[in-house]
Design brief:
4-stranded antiparallel sheet; globular; alpha/beta; 287 residues; 21% strand; single chain
């Protein structure tokens, strides 16, 4: 059984007004346990509205969200428990920091789960370690941290609740290249070690290509395509015509193909393109 299943989900804003519009329309897909799913789409495609349904922050106008086979809205009074199981990290989560110390901020969620004493301390310190925060930083005010460290503290606050599914909305937005790669390295390590299901929303095609097992592409409130990275990026021209981008390496492969080289334009890593070029040279070695 899939850990998460979305069935014919529609969310309409402003029903009965001149401003009525559907931000998500008849969307259906499933997420497997332990999967790393990437979601991409142009601004206004419905990504943020979609993910806010996954832990019950928004209620569908129609359709269902099934968590381990059960509709999360079957018992509305228990929707809070869903939010412990599906952890959502918003874009710029550092703006949600509010406690006196980093430790207290990270402990806020697990405390609300009922964790106390050694169990709470273990959850806080393990989450901090997973995102690269040192023990001495836990006693600081979160407002003394750098921008990247604040992002890590906010992420740790969700990880400390040990969710079954982690949903990340543009987690590296606004960070410099080194900060982006460091944070994504922490997320990859967390996924490897914990096997937690991860859903990553990002505008960066390279970020999605380097991390996701499968990609869901949204356009105008609907699913445009879905598949493994190679399957999605094989449709590069269609992505570009939809106002989306492709990884830089895919652009290079497409350009080489346009110039007559028999290159598969679906490649999305430097290593894959290098292999194809070496094969064209007759198996020579790289310089």
């Amino acid at each position: 059984m899939s850990i998460l299943e979305i069935k014919h989900l529609t969310h309409t804003y402003g029903i009965g007004t001149p401003f009525q519009r559907s931000a998500v329309e008849d969307v259906s897909f499933a997420v497997e346990r332990g999967e790393f799913l990437g979601i991409i789409g142009h601004t206004g495609s419905g990504k943020s509205t979609l993910i806010q349904h996954l832990n019950g922050l928004l209620k569908p106008t129609s359709g269902q969200v099934l968590l381990e086979g059960k509709d999360i809205w079957t018992e509305p009074k228990k929707i809070r428990n869903v939010r412990f199981q599906v952890g959502l990290v918003f874009q710029y989560p550092e703006y949600q920091l509010f406690e006196e110390t980093v430790y207290q901020d990270i402990s806020f969620g697990p405390k609300n789960q009922g964790k106390t004493g050694d169990e709470l301390d273990r959850a806080v310190r393990e989450a901090a370690r997973l995102v690269g925060l040192r023990d001495e930083q836990l006693d600081k005010s979160p407002f003394e941290l750098s921008g990247g460290q604040k992002r890590r503290a906010a992420l740790a606050g969700v990880l400390a609740m040990e969710p079954k599914i982690l949903v990340l909305d543009e987690p590296t937005a606004g960070l410099d290249p080194a900060g982006r790669e460091n944070l994504m390295a922490n997320i990859r390590e967390y996924h490897r070690n914990k096997g937690t299901t991860i859903i990553l929303v990002s505008h960066s095609m390279d970020e999605i290509a380097q991390n996701a097992d499968r990609i869901l592409v949204l356009k105008s409130a609907r699913i445009l395509m879905s598949g493994a990275p190679a399957e999605v990026f094989a449709r590069g021209p269609e992505l570009l015509s939809a106002g989306l981008d492709v990884p830089q390496i895919t652009r290079v492969a497409m350009a080489l193909r346009d110039r007559g080289l028999p290159i598969d334009p679906a490649v999305y890593t430097v290593e894959a393109l290098e292999r194809q070029l070496l094969e064209l040279k007759g198996g020579g070695t790289s310089c």
